[in-house]
Structures are given as structure tokens and as C-alpha cells.
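Sample 1 of the test manifest.
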Amino acid sequence: MTAVAAPTLFPAVPAWRQRLGALLRRPAFSISLFVLLGWVVVAVSWRLYVPYAPDATNAVAPFGTPSGAHLLGTDWLGRDVFSRLLAGSTSVIILAPAITVVALVVGSLTGLVTGYYGGIVDVGVMRVVDAVNTMPGIVLSVLALTVLGRSDLVLVLVIAGGFAPLVARTVRASVLAERERDYVDAARLRQEKGAYMIGVEILPNVMPTILVEGAIRLGYAVFAVATLSFLGLGPQQPSPDWGLTVSLGVQYVQNAPWILLAPSVAIASLVISVNLVADELRREFLH
Amino acid sequence: MKQYLAQRVGLVPVTLFVVSLLTFVLAQLVPGDVGRTILGPYATNAQVHALDRRLGYDLPVLQRYWHWATGFVSGNWGVSPVLQVPIRPLVMDRLGNSLLLAATAFVIVVPISVTLGVVAGLREGSRTDRAISLVGLSLLGLPEFVGATVLIVIFGVMLAWFPVTAQAPPGSGLLTRLHYLVLPAIPLVFVLFGYISHIARSGTIETSNAPYLRTATLKGIPRRAVLTRHLLPNALLPTVTVIGFQVGYLIAGLTVIEELFNYPGLGQLLISSATNHDLPTLADITMLVAIIFLVANILADASYALLNPRIRARRAQ
């Protein structure tokens, strides 16, 4: 941290491209990104090529073993597991980024303002942040979803509410470091206003921190959504949601393990690829 | 350090007060009538009013908070309106079961992840290191139920080495009980392995670069002695702390595992009291968990101070 970055005279686009190119040459990054983008494409386009309607039941063929007609078999209602696997990607692919965006916006604003102004605002807000962090997220989520009712909106707000303080703490630390730099003093001498200082001077410089934090939070968001829907606090039946399907499929594990294996492997592939992408981004942009 | 710890301990009542307010407000936000929420749509109005009165929901808000908070502190947690049993013995019993499961997980995970973390750190950048780090990072993000279902299918169903429920039949010996706990503990081990090995690795790397380690090596001390006497005690310090900080995570992990394996722990009680709208039980569990979490964090801090010779020396002066 002792080396002071040389002032950039030219726009940073070439540097960004270089870094992205370096990242893409790393197999852990490129494979993970491929898997991640693959699921995003599936989540928006599964309707075009799904072999069966995800909710179409077939009373004659429940617990069908994987076959040519049903690639991954059928579930307890004779629904096609493969079709439900594709359709089940939608909920988590929408909810997890939504949580991340809300947490990033709220957390970054809080971190920027408290870090820049310091003083009593800082102390007060950080106390609240500590208190929120004291409540393990799971307990807070269960309590809120029970009391406010189970809906996607509450789910997003509750998880984002738990994440925002963590984002705020990271961004604040980064702002505290930036605040000491010369360009901030220069802008202060020009008598720039607080909003300008935060938005135009400091924000672009803490942007890498915010983006990397966002990638890391996205991994936790997938984890949280999957976990809460597994606990029955997310999407409800007959949603093909992965976490929900696993929790319902557990009782058939002895006879039809493919029902819960398919969504389990899907969650694993998604969460691992998000985490590996985040880790590579962190190593590339923060060190 | 003493002062810092005193400050931390001093803040506990303040934090708990804020948490209790948060819990209370959330538990009060129930749309509609609390008695109705608990009893459901089929109860008569008279039953609902009676329950409201018994739980004190006809009192003014401040008085209600006072009643609940003082009751919690004095150990008088009341009776669950849904289960019709006293809340405190129930919660404590479940807590004991959860602790047993958590202890099993820790006994497995700590030696493995510390060893592999140190090995990775000693060979920073090597293939071994990359493999250990990649596995750790992958396991870290894997929701417990995902790891658990895969394990159940392989070891519970296909190989049938382990039972697929977590609770041994009543009256079985300690060994049988442990045998039932191994499979549920492993998904927790997966996630914890990611954290603990990562910290052990970075602690080792940081310490390897310290000047006193180079001095020790140059003095001609055998490598084994350098490792065990000079490197490990320092490298493992942050690891001890991070193990303490995993309690918050562990509560979420336990909840999922207990649900999946139908194990009567605190997490399962948390979910069942949520689905049954058992608000008094839910509020008490929340408070208990917050206390456990706070105490664990302070213990982690204190252990760091106690184990760190530099801080010990400063205190002795």
C-alpha cells in the first residue's frame, strides 16, 4: 500500500482491456464465467427449447428413471426433471442479482457518506451496522419472513439488509484511504461541494472495491437464496426453484435420487462459478 | 488489550438492548392480531382474545416490551402457545443437541483444515497450494444442503455406510450416536474447511516472510524446529480467532443440516416455530442466538490476546 499510483493521464480503457484479457486467459476464470453466463442464458430462454412444460404432471410415470424421453427422469408427480431444472434457474438468477444490487447501492452510499464525513454520523451509523451484524442473518431472515409474510420482495430486502452493512464497512475503509490522497486535497482547495467530492472525485476511485465486493456478495446471495428456499422461506410450490425442489425431493432419496441430485449439482455449479469469478476479480483488481 | 476487552464486554448490554428492540419490533409488526396469527383462521374470537391476554398483547407497547425483556433476563420465558410446553427447557434441550453436532463438525474440521492450510502456505504458489485453495474456495460457497444431498446419495443410499437420519434410536450408546452424526457434520466441515484453511494459509505465508524466521533458519536451527517452535505458534494465531468467528455462520449451517436430517436441534426449532407462527419462542431463540454470537466473538478476541506472546508480554510489564 506504500506505492502511490501514478496519475493517469489517459482514460483507463486500455488498462481495463488488458486486465480482462489476462483474466480470460486464466482457465479458472474463463470456465467459471462460461458456466455463469450459460445459466443466465438458460434462465431467460428456457421457454424456447424446454422439452416438457415444467408443471406438466404425468400420473402414469412418476419416479421415472433417466431415459431418452426424460433425460434426468421424472419426479414424484411425473414431471420432467430436466425441464424443471432449466426452469428452476430463473428464480435464483433474478433474486440473487437483485439482492446484490440493492445491497451495493445502499451499502456504497452509506460507506461513501460515513467515510467521507466521519464524525458523529460515522459513529452513529457504524453502531447500527455492528448491531445488525450481531444478528446472524439466518435468524433475522426467518423472523422477518415469518412476520412480514413470504414474498420475493421481502426475501430480497431482508438478505440485502443483512449484506448492506458489510458492503458499507468495506467501502468506508476504502474511502478512508482515498480521503488522504492529494487529489482530494486539491478538490477541497477548489472548494468543491460534498456531493461533488463523493460522486466525482472519490466514487470512481473506490469503484474497483465496490465491483469486487459486488461479485463476492453475489456468491453469498446465491448461497442465501438457495438456503432460504430450501428452508421453505423462498418460492413456494409448484415453483421449480432448485432449493425448494431439493427439500421436497429428500423424502424420495432412496428410490429416486435424481430428483434432488439434478438441482443440487446445478446450485453447486452456479455458486462455485460465481465464487471463482469473484476471487479472480479480487486478485486482479485489488492487489 | 485489557482495556479493549473491557470496552467490548461493556458494549454487550448496549448491543443486546438494540437487538432486543429489533426483535421486539419485528415480532410486533405482525399484520393483524398476534393471537390470530398464532392460532390460525379456525380459532374462535374468544380463544384469540384469551391468548392475547395471556401473552400480554392487550397491554401498552412499552409495558409489553418491559414484560418480555425482564422475563427473558430472569429466565422466565413463559410457555409456547403452540407447543404448550415451557419455552426455556425446550430451547436449552435443543441447544444441547445442536452443540453436539457442531462439536462433531469442529473435531473433524479443525485438524484437517489447519494442516492443509499450513501445507498450502508453506508451498505458496505450488500446484499443491493451488489445488488446496481451489477446493477450499469451491467448498466455501457450497450451500450445506447441496453437499449434504450429494453425500446422502453416495454414502447413505448407494454405499449405505451411514444412516440417513441424524438421530440415533433412543437409548443407544455414545458411539452409535456419533456414527449417526458423522454424515450430517461433513457438509458443515466442507464450508468451515474453506474458511479455516484459508486463514491458516495466509497466516503461514505472512509468518514465513517475517525476519525472525529467516534469522532462525540462518542460525542453523533444524527446519522441523523452525516450523514447530517459530512458525506455527505465530501462523496459527489468526486461525484460532477465525474459528471463534465462525459461530455466526455455524448457526445458519446447523439450521439447514438439522432440517435436512430431521435432527432436533435449535435450528430446527427456529424453523418450526417460524412455520407455526410461534412468535414467543421465535423471539427467545433470536435473543439466545445473539447472546451466543456475542460471547463467541468476545472469546475469540480474548483468546487471541491470551495466545499472543507480544500482547502477553505487554500486559506483564
